[in-house]
Design a protein that fits this description.
141 residues; mainly beta; Jelly Rolls; 6-stranded antiparallel β-sheet; two-stranded antiparallel ribbon; 1 helix; 8 strands; elongated
């Protein structure tokens, strides 16, 4: 993680949808930013502050006779990245609400720490157990 080597987006709000390499039972998310000491300006006001994590539930739109698909998002957690704490912060997700695996996760940055022009995300890690690993750990029925 080096200063300026980030995914920047304009303003203080933005989102990214991450396609996972497999379907995953999500347990936590980690966000990383640079430290104040590593920043050339001595500040990290471009760090994300308020963050929400969603998954999408896909299902039939229904009623119109067309095989359309509607997308419904479910919130798995809202948290605040604290620039006064460790630059690598992990937040648990409310996966017990949806005991199933997902292939995509949406990270919504709702605010940053004061930069009006842009927000930087240096690293996001998604934690969980792959669907096929969970199935293989079950005992006989």
């Amino acid at each position: 993680v080096f200063p300026g080597n980030c995914w920047p987006f304009k303003g203080h709000q933005g989102q990214v949808v991450i396609r996972l390499p497999a379907r995953v039972y999500l347990t936590a998310i980690t966000v990383q930013h640079i430290t104040k000491e590593a920043s050339p300006s001595g500040t990290i006001i471009s760090a994300p502050k308020d963050i929400a994590v969603f998954v999408s539930l896909l299902g039939p739109a229904g009623g119109d006779g067309v095989d359309a698909v509607r997308e419904e998002e479910t919130l798995l957690g809202m948290f605040t990245y604290n620039v006064e704490k460790d630059p690598i912060q992990t937040f648990p997700l409310k996966n017990m609400l949806l005991p199933r695996a997902f292939s995509h996760v949406k990270i919504l940055v709702k605010s940053n720490w004061g930069n009006p022009w842009y927000t930087c995300i240096y690293r996001v890690k998604v934690h969980g157990k792959m669907e096929n690993q969970r199935a293989s750990t079950k005992g006989p029925d």
